[in-house]
Each structure stands twice: as C-alpha cells, then as structure tokens.
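user: can you give me the structure for this one chain? tokens are fine.
assistant: on it. calling the predictor now.
[tool input]
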Amino acid sequence: MFEAAQIQRKLSGPHELRYGGLQFASEVFAARFLSGDFTTYLQTGSRILVAHGDIAGKGVAAGMWFTNLAGLLQSYGRPDSDPAKIASEINRHLCYLRPVAPFVTAFLAQIDCHSGELTYCNAGHFPPILLRADGRTELIERGGPLLGAIEGAEYESGELILEPGDTLVTYSDGVLECRNTSEEEFGLDRMLVALRHAESPSAQATLMMLLATLQDFANGSPLCDDVSLTVIQRDAKCTDIRHPAG
C-alpha cells in the first residue's frame, strides 16, 4: 500500500510550481491510504495544463483508477489542446469501459503563463473560486457533466484572464463536506471567507492558510472523504520568466 501511494504521488503534479508571474500549489490528503482526488500539471513552453479532479469512491478502488486517468491525461491533455476536447475524449473512453469505470469530476485549465489567459472546462466538478485582486469573487462553472456518465456528452470551454494579484482555487467535495465535532459542514460560505482571509503573495502560503482553517474547523474530526486543494496565483507585479521548480 505504501508503494502504491508513492507511485500515485509521483504521477501527480509537484506541490509547488512557478513559471513567469504564475504560481501553482497543491495538496492531496487521502481518507483511506490512496486518494481518488488528483492534481496534475503538463507543460509545453509557457503553457501549462492543470487538471484537478475527483474519482468516485475512496481508498484502493479509486486509487487504482488514478493510474488509468493519468495515462488518459498524458494521451489527450497536451497543453495546447482545448480543455473541452480533452474532457470529451476522456468521457468517451470512460463510457466505453462502463460499467467498470468510475465516474470522474474534473476541472481542466490551460494557462498561458505570459499573458494570464486561461481556457477551462469544468466537467461536473465543484466550481472553482476566482478571487480578483479587488476582492470580488466568481464561481467558474462552464463545461459539462461529470466524466463517464453520459455517452456523447457535449462540453464547452470558458475563458478568463488571471490579472495581476488574482487567485484561482479549485477544491474537492471533501473540503466543503468536512465536518466538525458538531457535525456541521465546512461549506462554500466558510470557504469564501477563508480564502479572503488567506490571501497572500505566495500561492503556497495561501494554500497552507486554507488548510489550517479547515483543520481548525474539523477540530480533530477524522476525514470522511479525500481532501484536495489547488491554488493558482498571478503575482501582483510582473516578474521575469523563470523555469518551473518543485
């Protein structure tokens, strides 16, 4: 089980990544040894494809399907590909494998690290939160149904620009459904408040503050589901392009 977890970690994206004025940070915590949540990055030049999602189920069953999904993202997920097309191809593959294959929710985003232009497709995932530098928030919803559920489903891509100082946060249902000792759920409203308070020049610092808020809320209650977060942040001031690290 330990070796399987290590393989899953190697197939996932790095915890920290930086290119030009964009910072990426992510963490995944498994409720049962292996996680059904995932975050991966694929890069070509100044373009990065981010995939954050949730495979239905928990533990070994969901973890085993992660390797299959990682292969599909490698096959279809070139950073110059349209996210809606990637979602359509993965949906076709999973539907072909029904009823064995699980349902998958995924947020796919292609980002130009020079301009901050972002093209995305939300395939049944909880809507990521876009926090603008001036404090406004938006939920990113355009896309289509969860993957593997509807054969021939149509997906569409949305577009936005990450302006200097903007932050985009994707999260799994395990975050919103995290419970405290009173059986209250963390929920979207607390997530929005936590994000505004966690705002930092560093994507990694923002991520750590969000996780700390979630941990304080749970107050020792065990995880009921996998928990994952990805933070994408554009520097408030433009910086010289640097190669990724992490």
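assistant: here you go. The two ends are 25 Å apart (CA to CA). The chain has one domain: 2-234.
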